[in-house]
Amino acid sequence: MQLYPSALADVFKRDATQDIEGAKKAMITSLQQSYAQIFGKNIINYSCEIDGLGEGDNFTTITVFDIESCAVFNSGDNVWTITFIPMTVEIAQDRIDSTKTSQNIIRALASDAQLQSTAVMNIILPEGAQIINGIEFENKIRYENRGGGSYQQSTSRVGTINGQATVVLTSESLLLASPEITITPAELASANPGLQIRYTGVPPPPGPDYLLYIGVGVTAVAVLAAIILVKRRGGGLPKTPSDKGWAF
């Protein structure tokens, strides 16, 4: 995560300066909760670094982690599968509540503020992996109209990092301080039906005991999140014709 110099960045800098280890722990805890909702799994082997605490610096956090037992091997067709579980109405309600809390925070800084954010997740597969459903991720766009001018747009593509097959998921959003978002839990849940990454080219697990940890070598790394706080409305991200779900 990176926050450009702003009133919001100053809040994060103040909290981190007062308790740097506490700030790191809070970041890890947030990720643990988020990825438990996305994959239904735990994150492990994690580390977090915080930088940019000086005046005029970009407040920056870099977190690297693995997801435990993220990939499941099917011996019937020799295919590994990584599953993003569908969002439930209960999880959607938590997301909405969290977003409204964020609105309250930025509204306290400036009544006409807006929060623009970009997050990129690289799902790096093991060496030799070949994605067999890559067409499902090529230049796909998902748009969520959250109401009141706030929205989130997500895209996906297939690429490589250090020669390893990678699914790149990018999310761009605009959150206005007001009015409050109006999207319902049911609408948000239906816009996030889940997805699967299926790949071959990786040997099967060596034995039953290994099934307790069959995701080894599959790393999901949050590589970039840039958040900008500005005081004037307008502009924003391009929209798609679809107001929810994947637009093909």
Task: Describe this protein's structure.
The protein is 24% helix and 39% strand. The chain has one domain (66-247). A hairpin with a 4-residue loop joins strand 4 (71-74) and strand 5 (79-84). The protein starts with a strand and ends with a strand. It is globular and about 55 Å long. The chain is α+β, with helices and mostly antiparallel strands and 248 residues long. The strands form two sheets. A nine-stranded mixed sheet has the order 2-3-1-12-6-10-9-8-13. The protein has a four-stranded antiparallel sheet with strand order 4-5-11-7, with no helix packed on it. The longest helix is centred in the middle third of the chain and has 21 residues, at 89-109. Residues 208-248 have low confidence and may be disordered. The chain has helices spanning 7-18, 20-39, 89-109, 185-190; strands spanning 2-3, 43-51, 59-67, 71-74, 79-84, 114-124, 130-131, 140-147, 150-161, 164-176, 195-200, 219-230, 246-247.
The amount of helix comes to 10-25%
Query: What structural category arises from helix and sheet content?
Result: alpha+beta
What strand order characterises the main sheet?
2-3-1-12-6-10-9-8-13
| Strand residue content | 35-45%
